[in-house]
Design brief:
Elements (H helix, E strand, L loop, with lengths): L13 E3 L5 E3 H8 L2 H14 L8 H11 L3 H16 L13
Helix pairs in contact: 1-4, 2-4, 3-4
């Protein structure tokens, strides 16, 4: 008899924005592939990363809200910075890339 675990199959990493929306990592990566978006996100991530390897999402969200009047756009920018710092920008926080 074969025993099958009752755990669901692993899915792609999902991120949740401050409005409760879920975003798959692949979807965020597609948005980050746009050169203009990538440049903006990279700039904000470099400003947000602290020398001690921390960053403050609330500060990023405040900057995003000041630039974008729509809450959804600000929430997405914060999520893109988060994804960037998890992957390509992980070195800014002194850690390994995930996902």
């Amino acid at each position: 008899m074969t025993v099958v675990p009752l755990r669901p199959k692993p899915r792609a990493s999902a991120y949740m924005d401050v409005l409760g929306g879920r975003w798959d990592a692949e979807r965020l990566d597609r948005v980050l592939a746009d050169p203009d978006v990538h440049a903006r996100v990279s700039t904000i991530a470099h400003m947000a990363a602290q020398p001690d390897g921390t960053w403050y999402p609330a500060n990023v969200l405040a900057v995003a809200r000041s630039r974008y009047p729509r809450e959804a756009a600000a929430a997405l920018l914060l999520l893109l910075v988060t994804r960037y710092l998890d992957t390509e920008g992980a070195h800014l926080l002194g850690r390994e890339r995930v996902g």
